[in-house]
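Weekly sync notes, structure subgroup
Attendees: PM, AL, DS (notes)

Item 1: joint prediction request from the bench team. They want all two components modeled as one assembly rather than separately. Inputs as received:
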Amino acid sequence: MSTISLATLRERDQKILVTGNHPKIMQSVLDFDYAAGKASPSILAIVSAGRRSQKLFWGDSEVLIPVFASIEAAKNAGFKPDFLLNITSASSACLVVETFFTLFPDAYGAHIFAEGVSERDALRLVEKYGESKLIAGPSGVGICLPGSLKLGAIGGILGERVAQLGVSRGTTAVVCSSGGMVNELMYQIVQSGSGLSFCVAFGGDRFPVTSPLSWILAAENDPQTKDIVFFGELGGTDEYDLAQAIKDKRVTKPVYAYIAGRFEAKGEKIQFGHAKALAKAEDETAAAKMKVLREAGAHVSATFSDFMAQFTALSKNIEAVQKARSWTKRSPSVKQTYFSSPAFSPAVAPASFSEGIVRRLLLKESVSRETVAFFDLVLTELIDHGPHVSGAVTAMITARAGRDMGSALASGVLTVGDRFGGAINNAANVWHDAVSHGTSPDELVALYSKNRDHIPGIGHKKYSVYKPDQRVSSLLERGKQDLSAMVHTNFALTVAHETSKKRSNLILNVDGATSALLLDYLVEKEKFSVEEIQTLLETEFFNSLFYIARSVGFIGNFLDQKRIDEGLFRLSDEDILQF
Amino acid sequence: MSRVAITEYAAKKLVLGGAYTGLTVTQDTVDEVVDKAREKAQYIVKIDVGIKKRGKQGLVRLNVPKNGLKQAFSELFTLGYERCIVEEMVPHETSSERYLSLDLLREGVLVLYSANGGVEIEENANTVERFTIPRTEALSGNTSVSINAVPLNGLLQAMQQSHISFLEVNPFISDGDDFIALDMAAEIDDAKAAKLPSWAHEHIIRKAATLQEQAVQTQDEATAAALTLKTLNKNGSILTLFSGGGASLVAMDSLVSSRLQDAIINYSEYSGAPTRDETCAYASTLLEVLFESSAPKKVILIAGGVANFTDIMTTFAGLVDAFTEKLNELKSQGVYVCIRRGGPNQEQGLAHLKAFLSTHGIPHDVHGPELSLGKVGELIALHV
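Output from the run, pasted for the record:
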């Protein structure tokens, strides 16, 4: 059996990694933690697809639990869970558990929520972890150590019931095959005046990873537990191991047992709801298993009503029960909000507009003088680039159509995209990706030329090797003053050197230079990690500079047109090629 | 998920592979199969739909020559079965028949073996040897255990490959080193049924006898929730609508304690948070079973534990939809409705159902978790 003791688990807050996403179950875990008076939620992180965070309640306030694409990513982010709450589907459940324990070999246990895990998958987990970890399932609703740990839907998802479990610690352990019945029994035991020390639904599948006897032994070895309530079903022979353990005095605490499934059809063996619930041989019937437990010395009830009646014999935990009843519901005035925002109210006011922008966009309390100055230079360079460019034209046409400032600005902004102004983020992606993966400039050029694709940040309609873009030169000049390694910038320049040999206008353009230099400032001056840069890229941060700066230009275009007022714009015939 | 039986043909084909030469036969393929038969050979023809002790029930034809095959198939199909298996007879002494079964258990594979196999194996139970292949070896398909002329490793690997959890070969004989399986039965792990080769899917024996059982099976396959129906006594008076694997057993036990076991029409269980529509379709099928019963008094027992996360309001709204659909029959047949259920939104769910039943004058008795699940039998006994 497992050497993990329940007493050890209660000594400090256990931390959980969730795989899959089931907000109601996760919220019930947080309600439990909050009622138990923990300083923070036991759920550290979630592994799921399609989002970066999951919002849940922590008491009356809200918390964001980080979401990662893989267990490995959660580990790399520095999380170190003690338990896995696995709510993925049956087909992947087994692999997820193996990955978890490979990455976190010191973790204590897990709950597998899925029904329909195959027998051999379950046996593979029994083989690997059956003796060393505490794993509830496959199927069932998990593990609860009242006051300490809620791993799964066990005990329900209703605030009041869950919070009762959070605040009360009693002396009765419940070991149950069924997810629905464990909740029923927990409810009835508290009603009868006892309290709960430890509860588990080990699952109705044929091969629970941690065996029913191992769970009973965990309760036996738990100093807090005085009585053990066991609920089993017809099918399988696990109860014989329990009977033997009682006879051998390995289990000495009183065991109150019920084996469900006494109904027998004439001449037919019925498969009941749980996978294991079919008595193929005589020794698997409820009656036979009740008999062997009774003979071993367990308190076995013939009917479920008698079983309930026995609960009055359990050690009373008056204080725990009263404490449980004193809980009040979450204030109904708390209203669900639909958008989250990290708190950002800087202690020191920014010294300039540019500094304010950098700090707000990077969510940093302080940034280096050099980074602010570089942002200032970029923003200045990007304000306007003459009336010929796409965004300026659309802004002006809108203004001449008599529309307002907001419409003209929006028209200009809507023109921004991959071809016009919006390539900074794409270019940054290319530089970052190549540098972090050790791709050489030659390889990058070869790859794009093979795919007959343009490299973002390379090439300009007007400028060429012979006619350099002054904006690029001044940005590079500034970078050389402030930075030392310039890894991304040097990479981009080498790429441009190669491509411009093919065609003279395939130079490093302003998007390419801005993105490479920004990456180098963030790495060298702001000490951003590869992962933090990755997040900025995924959230399109690098395009923000163009939008901010050029909005000024578009507003300028609007004001100009309003001042001059040339009337409604119409293309002349010679501007249209008829074909 | 549980274990399901497959036909003898599928068992042999999956376990013995290319070496197996028997054929599966339906009424549509009789001519095709007869054409393939050899003139000089003698054949054995058996019904192959998962029925045991076929010999004793007259479902086997022995020593059939090619020109007698058509007659043999015709006789067997007339009995109303869908599928037969046909193989060449293997002449042998009855005394050479041996028995083997392999059952996947937590500890490994339980092996039962007897040199006295055949139809009388139950009478020879005292000759059966019993031992366990350890789990590590069972999972790897490579064991040091050996039985004379039995390819144990091959059988273990075939079981693993085809997701077979239980395999019984009775009888088999040996011809030198050759392992000849005369009869074979297998159960596969339902969780992996979809992974079997496509020809094998129609060889999975799902015992859906009635139309309603088939309908529920179809509904179950179309949802992530679990829906089951097993008819026990079609002319009983208690229709059960249980939720939860464990709670459904406790409720059945309670009916047994109240000596109502013979009055139970069905065992049913729904769990895993079915939607309103799914619950409605399921309940509506169950109601058909109730209306077909010839019992004079009819009761519906809706019972479950205190649900962890199945929303009671949602599932009960589905029940009300089904009741609305079948309102006329519910009233004309004087059906009584008893309920015991708890869980998220139980107040609203129970109130919704109670209001519906009151409005339409359907007699009822509605309880939440304050009534012990073990007392539902006593509750019903008052109305049967």
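Discussion: The CA atoms of residues 213 and 242 of chain A lie 6 Å apart.
Action: AL to compare against the crosslinking data before next sync.
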